[in-house]
Amino acid sequence: MTAMMVRLxxxxxxxxxxxxxxFSETRKTGxxxxxxxxxxxxxxxxxxxxxxxxxHYPGMTEKSIKHILSDAADRWDIESIGxxxxxxxxxxxxxxxWVGSAAAHRSEAFASCEFVxxxxxTQAPFWKKExxxxxxxxxxxxxxxxxxxxxxxxx
Amino acid sequence: MTAMMVRLxxxxxxxxxxxxxxFSETRKTGxxxxxxxxxxxxxxxxxxxxxxxxxHYPGMTEKSIKHILSDAADRWDIESIGxxxxxxxxxxxxxxxWVGSAAAHRSEAFASCEFVxxxxxTQAPFWKKExxxxxxxxxxxxxxxxxxxxxxxxx
Amino acid sequence: xxxxxxxxxxxxxxxxxxxxxxEVADLDSVEKIRMYLSESRGSIWEEALNQSNIVISVNQVxxxxxxxxxxxxxxAFFPPMTGG
Amino acid sequence: xxxxxxxxxxxxxxxxxxxxxxEVADLDSVEKIRMYLSESRGSIWEEALNQSNIVISVNQVxxxxxxxxxxxxxxAFFPPMTGG
Lengths: 155, 155, 84, 84
Hints:
The complex is a heterotetramer, with two copies of chain A (155 residues) and two copies of chain C (84 residues).
Chain A lengths: L2 E7 L5 H10 L6 E8 L12 E6 L3 H16 L2 E9 L1 E3 L4 E9 L2 H18 L2 E7 L2 E4 L4 H9 L4
Parallel strand pairs in A: 1-4
Antiparallel strand pairs in A: 2-6, 3-5, 3-7, 4-6, 7-8
Chain C lengths: L1 E5 L1 H7 L3 E4 L8 H11 L2 H7 L5 E4 L2 E3 L10 E5 L6
Parallel strand pairs in C: 1-5
Antiparallel strand pairs in C: 1-2, 3-4, 3-5
């Protein structure tokens, strides 16, 4: 059984505390891989970001993240895995998302963490908009993200 | 230019603080991938571990880790990358090694972090021995580690 | 009754975050709901709901446009996700 | 003078962490040093230094057994690494 944790929150989180919690629930873990995504300081045109807004679909968001984590637990031998994702308005440089995977073997921790990130980007109902001095603009999805998620389909 | 950090130390380290430091030195980073390796609570035969000893080759160790980080910086577009590796006697559940990679794009952070771990396991002069109630025993290298490191040779 | 939600840029475009359809006897598929809204709400809705990359969910699960919809279901239309 | 280090299990086996060779005129390769130590130090050393997976470094860089060694170099013999 893989322990799973999903949190959606407006509040800032601390990656170090999350990793400590993840590890404290394990018995045979030899390694933890984490990914932390941060609000960029500038938008894709190089204009300083004032803030980033994360909208989501309450109810469906939690459900889809749990589904992604269950998929990861089916594919890899991982002892504990967790996702924390923020919603609402975030300032530049704040962490947006954290994924941590704890496993006996590092290859499984790496693969499952990357898999969860790739699916979060394309399968979990979140939408970002950026605010700069030029106004507020919804972010388009990236083809590269879809391609990265598709990689896992055949493995 | 990729910022690089290498530390060898007997003292305990805190993964959260290391990630904070890594991120604070970046300007365009969108994501950080970290790996933390921990002392297992039991050895490969299921016997509780009393402690793990990490021997190294002073001088060569730092040099070889810097070489691995330079290789990673040549292969991927990463803004900052760091390794902290402990030496000496460590108690069960203590962190042994930390690798953190900060990049604009998560795929490069994931790949470079995993590359550095695979090479650390096979190219940096560290040797582990485990102490249980049955005595002290040197750890043999794993063929799987050599195979994982070899994967990167052609990419 | 079918409850319909809109999110992200799509919601801004049509200036509506949710609507409730009370008369749903003929609206037994996602495609029929889309056609009904496109025809009854004007060209802005029509264009927004017929974008090629639109994502549709029924009861919070992503579906294809031929998916069946029943009385009491929750349907949503939204742009491709951009989280993480 | 050539300084030679031994690490890990190998060091324990031969009960030596380093030696200094003063007369090095004929010891101009890793292989010659290995043969010299194998012949002059007895069977425990011979067996330990000739294991197939032994790793050898010259001036802190891993080398193959035909690597050249010069007066003043630092050579090391050790088992495969097990860090990280």
